[in-house]
Structure formats: structure tokens, C-alpha cells
Design brief:
CATH superfamily of the largest domain: Tetratricopeptide repeat domain
Number of strands: 0
CATH architecture of the largest domain: Alpha Horseshoe
Radius of gyration: 31 Å
CATH class of the largest domain: Mainly Alpha
Distance between the termini: 104 Å
Shape: flat
CATH topology of the largest domain: Serine Threonine Protein Phosphatase 5, Tetratricopeptide repeat
Strand content: under 5%
Order of helices and strands: HHHHHHHHHHHHHHHHHHHHHHHHHH
Length: 480
């Protein structure tokens, strides 16, 4: 039915009135939200030592938070910036409000619960993690953290339920498997925990947290042989790393602290270590082009990736920035040697020693240079200096043993090898050499012990092990 002109005017007026009411209501809500946000904005912290860009970002975010139409967005940016740069008190103030004004966003209770858990405030963390899971049931890191918090709160059965739920969604989640095993251990069932972990490390031998818990279980049970074996396997797996957590990891895109970025790069998950570490270190170098730490770490990473030209460039830059840091020179020397530029390597070593005359790592390189030139007495002196000043590292003792053997100073070499295995009980070269020395001395029992240890060491090449066994059989007429 066609409306008359009068009716059309009335409809238009009605629609305009509705629009005005709606816009007025929206304006009222925006003004109310702006007032609420402005009232809780935290005081800006001291930014001494940070690049100016962080101050500019915070100022812009504060401006947005006080604006009429983007107050929530500004507050969100402030929360991320503060947490990413370690200002956790300010981050919490923002996040507490965001939990209320952005109630469907699961990251706010998660970030807030993560901070509370880090401070040991589990009573606060638990409901926040539970809220996160309600909003994002498929985000498994939140479930794992909830299980960890429940276990720390002595709610063992509840924690086990959470870990099992994770495993129903991701059967190979090592953090949930380790957590569930810990609940079994806490519940007085170490055998079940051990069996679960042993089955898992057969599938994923590089998962360090599982080896750590296995060692604790065997220590509790008094199984010294298993403890020794698992410690070796744990060394091969490398150091334990934080659980991959994309929401937390993504915060590093807002970080302006090169040290925090360097630490995050070092803690990157092994399955994505290179890509993520490179991303973080490149950001750190961009932010702080005159900080030698991230530049050195990036150079080392380039070396690991086989990008030797880039590695050399970064390490030369690091040494130029801080010539008093021995690691800058020692890593540069290693890269130059790997490239085959020995004149440059020698120049770098001499420059390093001139700037850091007491650095053990540089005396190690100096000893290697002497040994390569056949100057064994000078090499031994350099290695001995490094060993005295770096007693926790087996490298100098190993190098010293090899020099002694080249000089036919067998007894001194064997003493140095025993020093190696005190520090690194299953050093592959030291174990094989000690087995051969025992064979040559006619000590079948000692040789058999070293061969037994060698068989448990995956770093020893099969052909080397077979050769030692062959020598044992030839000497003693039987297999070890």
C-alpha cells in the first residue's frame, strides 16, 4: 500500500527519533565507559633505560583510553604494553577492568591469572583460569596452567582431571603427561608415574621436563643406576623450556626491552626454536642497535642455521660494540674458523686477548691454536689456565688430556680424563678413551664398566663402540 506524503513524513520522523534515541544511548554509554576507564588508568612507570618509542606508544594508548569512541581499545593496548615490558602492577590494573568491560575476551582473565600465578597467588589465579577455559575451551595452555595451579593448591584429583581432559584433545601433550604423572607421584603411585613417563620419552626423547621428573622419581626410590642413566638422557634433551603459549608469546611483539626479548628467544620452544628466536632477536636488534647481547645471540643463531656470512657480520658488530665481553670474541673466532678464514680468526683472537686477558674461553682458543701448530707445551699451559678459571666446564680438561696424549704423557692424560667425567659423567670421547686405556692395562673389570657406560650414551658412534668391544674381546677373549 502506497503511503501518503503525510504518512511518509510521519514514518521519517519516527525513524529519525529512533535513531536519535539510539545514538544518544550509544553516546551516553561511550561517555560512561570513557569516564570509567579514565578513572582507573595507572600512573605511568619510570621508563629510564627504555627506548623512546615505548613512551610514545604508552602516551598514544592513554590518549585512546581517554577518547570517546576508543577507550576500550586504548586500555587494551595499555594492558598489553605493560605486561610485555614487565610492568606487571600496571598491567593488572588495566586487566582487572578489561575483565569487566570486555567480558567475552578470554585473554584478559588469562593474562591476569598468569600474573597472579607467577606471584604465587593461586586463590586469585584459579577462578581466572577457569573463566578463560569457559570462554576458550580449545586453548590448551590455559588448561595445563589450570592443572598446574590446582596441583600447587594441593587439589591433586582435580588437577589430574584437567590433565586428562588436555590429553583427550592432544594425546602427546608432554606438559599434561608430566603433570598427570606428578599427580600420580603425589598420590603415592610412583610406579604408574614412572611407567607413563618412560612410555612417553620413548616417543619423545627430547622432552626435558619428563626426564627431570623421572630423575626425581628414581631418586625417591633410591635407584642410583637409573638416576645416573636418566641424567645422561636429560643432558641430551637439553634444558627445560617454558610451555609454548601463543597468547603470551604474542605479547613480545609489544616488547621494547632487548634483554627480555633475548631471554624469550633463548626460551623458545625447540619445535619452533629457530624461527621464533630469530624473530625475537631481530626485533631486539632493531630496538637496541647498540646492545651487544642480542646481536651476539643473533650471530650465534645465524651460525646454527648455517648462514655464516650473516653470523660473521653480527659477531664482528658485537665485538666492536663491547670489546670487553669475551663471548663476543670467542664466538667470532669460532665462526671465522668454520668459514676457513684463519688469518681473520687469529686477528680476532689476539684482539680478544688484548681486551680480555683473563678470559678462560679465549685461553681455550689460544690453546687450540698452539696445539694446531704443534706447540704442545704452550697449548697445555693455556688449557691449564682455562681449567683453573672455568672449573665447571669439562672442555679444558678434555683438551688438556688430548695434548698430554700427543706428548705421550699417558698418566697425566688419564688423570685429565677422569676430571672430564667428574664434570660430564658420560662425555663420549672421555668414556671411549678410558675404556681403551683400561683394556691396554689389562683391567677387564674397569674396561667393562666404561663400555657399559658407553652403551648407554647415544652420542657415541656405533662404529666407535664396536671397535672398543672388538679390542676388549681381543684382549680378554670374551665379550664385555
Amino acid at each position: 500500500m502506497k503511503l501518503s506524503s503525510k504518512q511518509s513524513r510521519l514514518v521519517g520522523i519516527a525513524l529519525l527519533a529512533i535513531a536519535l534515541v539510539a545514538s544518544g544511548f550509544g553516546l551516553w554509554r561511550a561517555m560512561d565507559l570513557r569516564s570509567a576507564v579514565a578513572a582507573i588508568l595507572p600512573e605511568r612507570p619510570n621508563l629510564d633505560g627504555f627506548v623512546p618509542e615505548l613512551g610514545r606508544r604508552l602516551e598514544a594508548a592513554e590518549g585512546s583510553a581517554r577518547s570517546l569512541w576508543n577507550s576500550r581499545g586504548g586500555l587494551s593496548e595499555l594492558a598489553r604494553l605493560y605486561q610485555a615490558n614487565g610492568f606487571l602492577s600496571q598491567a593488572r590494573e588495566c586487566q582487572r577492568s578489561l575483565v569487566e568491560i570486555d567480558p567475552q575476551n578470554p585473554t584478559w582473565p588469562y593474562f591476569l591469572g598468569n600474573i597472579a600465578g607467577g606471584y604465587g597467588d593461586l586463590q586469585t589465579a584459579l577462578p581466572l583460569l577457569q573463566k578463560t577455559i569457559q570462554l576458550a575451551p580449545d586453548y590448551l595452555p590455559a588448561r595445563v596452567r589450570l592443572g598446574d595451579s590446582l596441583m600447587k593448591s594441593n587439589q591433586n584429583a582435580e588437577a589430574a582431571t584437567v590433565y586428562r581432559e588436555v590429553l583427550s584433545r592432544d594425546p602427546e601433550n608432554g606438559y599434561a603427561i608430566t603433570g598427570l604423572s606428578r599427580t600420580e607421584l603425589n598420590g603415592g603411585n610412583p610406579d604408574a608415574a614412572r611407567q607413563r613417563l618412560l612410555q612417553f620419552v620413548q616417543r619423545q626423547p627430547q622432552f626435558a621436563p619428563a626426564w627431570g621428573l623421572l630423575i626425581s622419581i628414581e631418586e625417591r626410590l633410591g635407584n642410583e643406576t637409573a638416576v645416573a642413566e636418566y641424567k645422561l638422557r636429560a643432558q641430551d634433551a637439553g634444558r627445560q623450556r617454558e610451555m609454548p603459549d601463543p597468547w603470551i608469546d604474542d605479547l613480545m611483539a609489544e616488547c621494547y626491552d632487548p634483554y627480555r626479548l633475548s631471554v624469550a628467544a633463548s626460551a623458545a620452544d625447540p619445535s619452533n626454536n629457530h624461527a621464533r628466536a630469530r624473530q625475537l632477536l631481530e626485533r631486539a636488534v632493531t630496538i637496541a642497535p647498540n646492545d651487544d647481547l642480542p646481536i651476539r645471540l643473533l650471530g650465534n643463531l645465524m651460525s646454527d642455521l648455517g648462514e655464516m656470512t650473516s653470523a660473521r657480520t653480527y659477531l664482528e658488530r658485537a665485538a666492536q660494540i663491547d670489546p670487553k665481553e669475551p663471548d663476543n670474541w670467542s664466538y667470532l673466532v669460532r665462526v671465522l674458523k668454520a668459514i676457513g678464514d684463519m688469518p681473520a680468526a687469529n686477528r680476532a683472537l689476539d684482539a680478544g686477548l688484548a681486551n680480555c686477558p683473563e678470559a678462560p674461553v679465549l685461553h681455550l682458543e689460544k690453546g687450540r691454536r698452539y696445539a694446531a701448530a704443534g706447540r704442545f707445551e704452550a697449548a697445555a699451559a693455556s688449557f691449564a689456565f682455562a681449567r683453573r678459571n672455568l672449573p665447571e666446564d669439562s672442555t679444558a680438561s678434555m683438551e688438556l688430556a688430548l695434548v698430554y696424549f700427543k706428548q705421550e704423557r699417558l698418566e697425566e692424560g688419564v688423570v685429565a680424563l677422569h676430571e672430564v667425567v667428574k664434570i660430564d659423567p658420560n662425555h663420549p670421547v672421555a668414556v671411549v678413551l678410558l675404556a681403551r686405556y683400561a683394556i691396554s692395562n689389562g683391567d677387564a673389570a674397569d674396561a667393562a664398566n666404561w663400555i657399559k657406560r658407553a652403551r648407554k650414551q647415544p652420542k657415541i658412534a656405533a662404529r666407535d663402540l664396536a671397535q672398543v668391544v672388538k679390542e676388549y674381546r681381543s684382549q680378554f677373549g670374551q665379550l664385555p
